[in-house]
Amino acid sequence: xxxxxxxxxxxxxxxxxxxxxxxxxxxxxxxxxxxxxxxxxxxxxxxxxxxxxxxxxxxxxxxxxxxxxxxxxxxxxxxxxxxxxxxxxxxxxxxxxxxxxxxxxxxxxxxxxxxxxxxxxxxxxxxxxxxxxxxxxxxxxxxxxxxxxxxxxxxxxxxxxxxxxxxxxxxxxxxxxxxxxxxxxxxxxxxxxxxxxxxxxxxxxxxxxxxxxxxxxxxxxxxxxxxxxxxxxxxxxxxxxxxxxxxxxxxxxxxxxxxxxxxxxxxxxxxxxxxxxxxxxxxxxxxxxxxxxxxxxxxxxxxxxxxxxxxxxxxxxxxxxxxxxxxxxxxxxxxxxxxxxxxxxxxxxxxxxxxxxxxxxxxxxxxxxxxxxxxxxxxxxxxxxxxxxxxxxxxxxxxxxxxxxxxxxxxxxxxxxxxxxxxxxxxxxxxxxxxxxxxxxxxxxxxxxxxxxxxxxxxxxxxxxxxxxxxxxxxxx
Length: 477
Fold this sequence. Notes:
Low-confidence stretches: 97-101, 445-467
Strand content: 5-15%
Mean pLDDT: 81
Radius of gyration: 28 Å
Largest sheet: 4 strands, antiparallel
Strand order of the largest sheet: 1-2-3-4
Oligomer: single chain
Number of helices: 20
CATH superfamily of the largest domain: Intergrase catalytic core
Structural class: alpha+beta
């Protein structure tokens, strides 16, 4: 996708002449763009990825300009491109990659009279199909297909023991994570992994252990096995949670807002005012704004839990202004084309971060962390932050943002403590300079450094996992 807003004439006139096109990806395998010839003539283009794995391109028309009034405007060309994509000839010849290959199904089919690990996983998946959230279900199936099925699905469940789990841990820790449709990267020995990579892979192992534990427990409950040894073999690897440290200051948020294009700016403001996930913002409808509470209603999405998000006056005014002129069933946030946002926001946001010089690891989801972090720093109770974010309890908020709470604890103690000794109350004004000096000395200059993570965060001081064996020496880093 191009890093230029082709809908603006001022942007198009500044583009340089080159053999290649300036493309915008409209969908997987479909792009709309602009070509500039050596003479400076501009033409609208469209292309799709064909079944013979080549791009097929067409010219839609010249770009309308002051010299060429008969040309096509941006929106006219975009409409022509979509009509071309929907034509029968293009539809039959288009090849779309990046589909969900498993489509919510396991890549294996357990068979035979012997109850295997594969049978247990199948029963668990079928239970989660009716009992779990949709997004969580697809993640579950993907983890099973990628990590567990190739290694354990064939094994009789009653034969599963600690050695099998040990080998699973080694395989997962040494196997790089899969990225899209790219070929799998070569294995890396545990001793050669950096701290952060090892921490993340340990968390993956623990997630797999939890999946197996529930699947084996369901098999035990259903009477498929007569021993609970498979469950008792599963242990969590010791790994300390890393608190969230990547979030933006108020000044950085304002800098980002000032430099964003209008449609992306609205989406960013929506995230900073509510802490919503991007999928929740994209699906938000006008009828969900200011209906029953002074805020917005978020429909069930990730975890089947709907919620209300309360807004400050500034945020409420913003949402009401964005909804002006829209019907109740229309989406609140639309892109420059007047359509519902797609994954295109990722590229636009990445380009904005690069252009404004903000931390390169900042992604759109960082705005949710920014919202939560700033609320916690301002002294908001964790229970309130948890409800605003849509978490079931405060555990996740405490684990992720609790390192920011010491500052709010200090504020609360100053605000709530009742006077106790008249003599010391009088000393407060007399020792104002000394107290200010202490406060300045103990408070960090960098607002990000509250609860800074120690360098050796990968090994907790209190090992609650009860894990033992050879693997303990290999991962203790």
